[in-house]
Amino acid sequence: MAFQDVCKQSYIAEGELVPIKVGKQEIVIMWADGGEPKAYEARCPHEGVSLGQGDFNGRLLYCIAHGWVFDGRNGRSLQPAGWQMKEYPLRIHNGMVQVDLSP
């Protein structure tokens, strides 16, 4: 695994979504209420719209383009069902959030 620093740990908090650009790739760090921080590709599986601009209420992420709804705890699509956000391994090391974006 090739973890790389993406932001300081202090930039993320429970109940928030943080969009981050890593090179040319956009990811989101989602920390659902009562859960753990997770890293996902910031592209809606429907039409590739940026989920970094989505509306996150601490548990659910709403795509601004067509209203798709994702569970912030696991990236699963709730409306419509049957889709999944691409998740990347995430760890916190020495005060930094690190993500492995390797294929």
TrEMBL record:
Ranges of residues in domain Rieske: 4-99
Entry-linked Pfam families: Rieske
Coiled coil: none
Signal peptide coordinates: none
Keywords assigned: 2Fe-2S, Iron, Iron-sulfur, Metal-binding
Highest taxon in the source lineage: Bacteria
Gene3D superfamilies (alphabetical): Rieske [2Fe-2S] iron-sulphur domain (2.102.10.10)
Cofactor dependence: [2Fe-2S] cluster
InterPro entries listed in its UniProt record: Rieske_2Fe-2S, Rieske_2Fe-2S_sf
Family under the similarity heading: Belongs to the bacterial ring-hydroxylating dioxygenase ferredoxin component family.
Identification of the protein by name: Rieske 2Fe-2S family protein
Lineage: Bacteria, Pseudomonadati, Pseudomonadota, Gammaproteobacteria, Methylococcales
